[in-house]
Design brief:
Blueprint: E1 2-4, E2 7-9, H1 20-34, E3 40-42, H2 44-49, H3 52-61, E4 66-69, H4 72-81, E5 89-92, H5 101-107, E6 111-113, H6 116-129, E7 133-140, E8 148-149, H7 153-161, E9 166-173
Parallel strand pairs: 3-4, 4-5, 6-7, 7-8, 7-9
Antiparallel strand pairs: 1-2
Helix pairs in contact: 1-3, 5-6
Length: 188
Amino acid sequence: RHREGGSLIMKRRVVVEIDLQALVRNYRKIAAHVKPMDVLCVLKANAYGLGVAAYAKALVEAGCTQFGVAEPYEALELLKVLKGRAGVEVQMLSSVLPDEIPEMVKAGVILPMTDLAEAKLVSAAAVKAKRTAKVHFKLDTGMGRLGILAKDAPRVIREVKRLPNLDCAGIFSHCPMAYDPENTFPED
């Protein structure tokens, strides 16, 4: 703080400094630890407001091929940043509205399957576009917001797998209580 012309001038006290090399080191450590599985790096909300391009490029250079986003706009923006990067995929982690599905199918975004009705819409859009839509089943493991309940999962997954033009490639969820020391669910 200093005075200028009789007025007190305030300087910012809080700044964010991101070390992309530390990000890359951390990504590589995690990737080595979970090998042979892949790591999906979440870059939703424009990398939480920090600007997605630098993070995405650094992570791709480090070997990341899977990215997760929250909404269609983010998926399309990330695909622009990653244009020309073979084998890199972007996955929606939250819901997709019916009118957003055709564009997401055409863009090749991996879509969440949260119920049979959504799967039918994605299948129809894929058939119309003469494409195969890659999808992952989103299971509700306790968040209570979005996804197929465990008791319904076997039936829904079987029904969705019968639909045309869908590549049912995976299953994902959102850990409901990662920080509760009394809850062993994240470790089970």
